[in-house]
Amino acid sequence: MPRFIEVSHVIEPGMVTYPGLPEPKVEVFVDHDTSRARYQNKSEFLIASLHLCGNTGTYVDSPLHRYRGATDLAGLPLERVAHVPVRVFDARSLGRAVGPELFRGVDLRGTAVLVRTDFSKHWRTERYGRENPFLTAKACELLVDAGVAFVGIDSLNIDDLADMVRPAHTILLGAGIPICEHMTNLAALPTGGGRLHAVPIAWQGGATFPVRAYVQYGSESS
After folding, report:
1. DSSP labels, 78-112
2. Collapsing DSSP states into helix, strand and coil, what is residue 28?
3. Could you tell me if 73 and 200 are in contact, meaning their C-beta atoms sit under 8 angstroms apart?
4. Centroid of chain to Cα 47
5. Partner of 177 for a Cys bridge, out of 46, 98, 103, 172, CB 3.0 to 4.6 A?
6. Does residue 36 sit within a domain?
7. pTM exceeds 0.90 for this model
8. What CATH number should be reported for the domain holding residue 137?
9. Per the domain annotation, does 6 fall within a domain?
10. Predicted confidence (pLDDT) at residue 178 exceeds the cutoff of 90
11. What angle do CA 11, 13, 207 make, to 5 degrees?
12. Rounded Cα–Cα distance for residues 33 and 45 (Å)
């Protein structure tokens, strides 16, 4: 039997993902009680909308997030965000700046590289909004040269917030490589094996959107 490990945060109304961006809000149009009259007391339904910023919870960035006219969410190739072979790298001992040394000497072509920092333990605390671990430009250049399909990190941002050039976003998205930020539970993943699924909605013109990301292990994942 296949095994599934979730690596995304739950989205809740009012939660803060990235300080300064709008918080998700729920609007209920029909609830279970009021719907009964519509269905002659034979059934009941809940119909609601969720208003949120694309950068909410665990989300995927498309190249459009960084580059005008680039590939949007609807244009992301599914082979980059679904059933992608996983490689997990433990960066906890490297400090904030994660350089290329972590990835050298490993065949990464076509893989989803997930960088474990355990910064996700600060999720929804004041500490989560500052001094996050990030990938350096040289690390991202190596990943592009290695032909990775996808890069994820369990941190507030894949870039250093103090660097307005945003080299990680610039390099990876410029190469057409989707980025996933605010991942979690990477400690539960083995270093190799498994397949990542982190598929956003096919939003034409959309740059970023939340995903329910998980890694699948077992006979059905190969």
Report:
1. HHHHEEEEEEEEE-GGG-SEE-GGGTTT---TT-E
2. strand
3. yes
4. 27
5. 172
6. no
7. yes
8. 3.50.30.50
9. no
10. yes
11. 55
12. 8
Q: Domain range spanning residue 100?
A: 55-221
Residue 55's CB is within 10 A of a number of other CB atoms, namely 19
CA gap 96, 66 in Å, rounded: 23
**Segments of 62-213 assigned E as strands:** 82-90, 97-98, 112-116, 134-135, 150-153, 179-181, 192-197, 208-210
Residue at 14 is within a domain: no
- Looking at the structure of the chain, the number of domains it has is 1
pLDDT given for residue 211 in this prediction: 98
pLDDT in tens, 185-202: 999 999 878 999 999 999
In a domain, 10, yes or no: no
**CA gap 190, 186 in Å, rounded:** 9
HSE-CB of 181 using CA atoms within 13 angstroms = 24
Say if residues 114 and 150 touch (Cβ distance below 8 Å): no
Q: Are the C-beta atoms of residues 47 and 29 closer than 8 Å to each other? A: yes
Please give the structure tokens belonging to residue 94: 């490297």
Query: What's 209's DSSP letter?
Result: E
The token pair that represents 22 in the structure block? 């709008």
Tokens encoding 112: 């989803």
d(CA 77, CA 102): 27
Q: Amino acid letter at 190?
A: P
Q: For residues 154 and 172, what is the distance between their CA atoms, to the nearest angstrom?
A: 17
- CA-to-CA distance for 115 and 64, rounded, in angstroms? 23
Type of residue at 80: R
